[in-house]
Specification:
alpha/beta; three-stranded mixed sheet; seven-stranded parallel sheet; Rossmann fold; 307 residues; single chain; 12 strands
Length: 307
Amino acid sequence: MNTNHQNINGTVLVTGASGRHGGTGPLIVRKLREQNIPVRAMVRRRDERCAELEKLGADVIVADYGDYPSLLAALDGVKHAYFCYPVAAGIVEATARFAAAGRERGLAFVVNNSMGPSHSHSPSPLARAQWLSEQILEWAGFRCAHLRGGFFFENLLLLSEETILKDGLIANAFGSSPITWVASEDMARVCAAALLEPSLQGVVWVTGSETLTFPQVAEIVATGLGRTVKFEDLGTDPERWSARLAENPRTNAAMREHLLALARVLKVRPALPLTDTVRRLTGQEPIKLSEFVSAWRKRVETPTADR
């Protein structure tokens, strides 16, 4: 990471600072505070996670993308900001409100955690909305780095942790399509580095070092957990997968529609090309799936672990 802080003028705002899925926000706060960068951590509500942010020395503020006055307060005195929105509906309006508040407060540089499928003609409504979000931030006049990442390793747990541990099963409609993966920790380290390097602008592709199919993923997970794990292809029956996703309380309707569209697209389009962004911006090698599974196994086998 760049340790020259001359480009930082004032406090850096990190949105989604207490986020759970992927957890890039908390990791970015930690990485910036390790560099003694002043950080304002934006959260939607106060809970036990705020105490951890405050221990790191972050200024925790409660704000919401739907509440313009709270965004003005969060962005007060901020020149550099990390923008992240959940995989859910509403990003276009949220981005517009954030951009308006940023213009009013003099925001200059935005690191935007976008998504790999972001495109104006994507079959996924969420991916099209993500692309429009990128455009809004550009129209607002900010310098922007739009980080489009691979498929998070954490999505494996979001979608299949329960069935892996209970039934030794990963079931989805991705079939044998190659998918380019990345660890959320690597994405967070890249985001933190980007916030310290405002010369980085435009679309930046962020991937790990592996392109894997789900059958290959199942083999790696099985080896890492020391148990049998099989992959079931639901590609011929996407409605069955949709029904299973609907039973998962960690998903929402927009996310489910996005995943189904992504599964269709990957059958006819190549996976994202691998990049050296993680190594180039952080000086570290990307985390491999086997390493991610090993860390997950330790958490699973430690009864007091915070999952």
